[in-house]
Amino acid sequence: MTSENALSRGTPQGQPTPAPGEFAMRFTSTPRGARLARRLVSHRLAQWGYPYDSGPNETTTLIASELAANAVRHGRVPGRDFHVRLTAPLDDAPGTIRIEVSDTRTEKRPTLTAAAPDAETGRGLYLVSRLAERWAVGPRSGGGPGKTVWAEIATEHKPGSDPGPLQRPHG
Known about the structure:
The chain is of the alpha+beta class. It is 26% helix and 27% strand. The model is unreliable at 1-12, 14-18 and 162-171 (pLDDT under 50). This is Histidine kinase/HSP90-like ATPase domain-containing protein.
């Protein structure tokens, strides 16, 4: 199941405004599914004008990887998939890239905790909190079982002109 939306819609003044790019897909709740989700997020952003080595692409891909890995590790219900939804502005104006990962486990809500210095896991949401402008956990859209973890990444440059990888705007 894949959906994409890059059509224009009109404003009240009759001027067309670009709709954001949209990509959505279900993945198996396995490490392979998480890896595929990460790769497709990066690939879709590159198709939309955010090169693989740009800050928005690398940051969003890292966040997608962490959220997908958490969905597989902590949100897995046997026989159920996880869902990824990506939206991004396609025009020259600054905007927000939004990544959402939904799983079917309602009772396991992620929390930001401090990992022990020698721990091999437990830093994913810390990375998300540092790289994303905003992130949160909410109910799964459509009234389905589970939850959605989302993060937003600000883009200050038009697609294809970002100054470098993993640079978060400070202001």
